[in-house]
Automatic annotation (TrEMBL):
It comes from Streptomyces dangxiongensis. InterPro entries: 6-hairpin_glycosidase_sf, 6hp_glycosidase-like_sf, Glycoside_hydrolase_63, MGH1-like_GH. Belongs to the glycosyl hydrolase 63 family. Residues 51-442 form the Mannosylglycerate hydrolase MGH1-like glycoside hydrolase domain. The keyword Hydrolase applies. This is Mannosylglycerate hydrolase MGH1-like glycoside hydrolase domain-containing protein. PANTHER family: MANNOSYL-OLIGOSACCHARIDE GLUCOSIDASE. The keyword Hydrolase applies. Residues 468-477 have a biased composition (Basic and acidic residues). Coiled coil: none annotated.
Amino acid sequence: MDRSAQLTARPAPGEIAYDQPPSATSAHVAAARVLAANWTGSSTVPSRSLYPHQWSWDSAFIAIGLRHISPLRAQTELETLLTAQWADGRVPHIVFNPSVPLDAYFPSPDFWRSVTAGRGAGAPRTVQTSGIVQPPVHALAAWLVHRADPVLSRARGFLARLHPRLAAWHRYLLHRRDLGGAGLASVVHPWEQGMDNSPCWDAPLARITPAPARSFRRADLDHGAPGDRPTDLDYGRYVRLAADYRDRGYTREDGEFAVEDPSFNALLIASEYALARIAGELGATGTARRARAERLTATLVERLWDPRAGMFLCRDLRGGGLLTERGVGGLVPLLLPGLPREVAAALVRTLRGPHFSFGDRTRLVPSYDLLGEAFDPHRYWRGPAWFNTGWLVERGLRTHGETAAADALRAAVVRLADASGFAEYVDPFTGEACGATGFSWTAALALDLLATDHPEPGVSPTGTGAFDRSDEGGDRR
């Protein structure tokens, strides 16, 4: 399909029925079945086929949805993940299930060698993990899970046990990962930002000599179409970066890739607000954390906002400037209540404008600029729409009072999640399922959006509002 056809595409008869929303009951049941099928007894795999272990930010999103069907399972999800935390505070992006064969997923535990290579950084000895991280959604998830059933949470000491681990996680990011010296956290591998294959990484990755293709075997191609997945060249660069970081003992962040990313930092700031709420629940004051969240918001605007682009951009710390590619991560800071009004308004215009075209040419928010040379509606994070970023943008729109747009996006996420079989991601024009189906965070976030017809608008600086739904049970002390 050529570029002009992509930009005007509409679903053909028999494809996704956008104008026929699923029954809330049937969608709820179907989503709950996905999460039940992917539950291992202590955590939830993203997908039984493609991703057979526990992933860090997946588990945070999964817990946000699980709280509506089992607050206990939601609490267990986060507790299981955080038992694999390293002594230096990092939460690894994968916690490996020892019963899964090594060849079921690459990079496998024998690549990461966390127990030995990570010894100096305090890797746990009883569980094998990766050595890199993922976006810090966890404190936000913990607060929402607590709010779903405060009586159960208090009885189990849920927040009291998680709070020190979450605080250590944030300290690691705010100190060890402040590679630019301005206060923002940096990622040292594209996998850490979560949007692995985004064209935003093309320029900094071009400096990386790829690992030879013969040195690794990609298990992902056994479960997904090659045209939907990263290229072998990109994968070779990912492997090289990860191996180099491992060989430095996971303690030196002086590699060739270091990027300040707007979505990673927006999620850190949102979780700082959540940690302030958690501190308040535990009888402490969250004043310092709220003040830090406000300062970090100002720093985010100062360092990563580009008024000409009308959105936030990534900063390449090794290349010396803002990267010009427009990815959906540049819209995620809409989550933040402290954004200047003109910045929030510009982000909404960009969302609706030709680069993302939500509500016009696209049915969900594409992961990359529709007008970018690298746009591809099917290849991983190079254009397809993802449900977790749709959920984040929906929350952001509601935060800033864009209720009609938030309602439209909410309806689209739920409708497409159900119609696509809870796909990992979809073509933003046609809704065609890509990647795995029965994907856990798609099901979980659809459940969250189904939980109430009228989410509260706005987010106060204390973290209430769009993340504190009015029907979540409240304070039942």
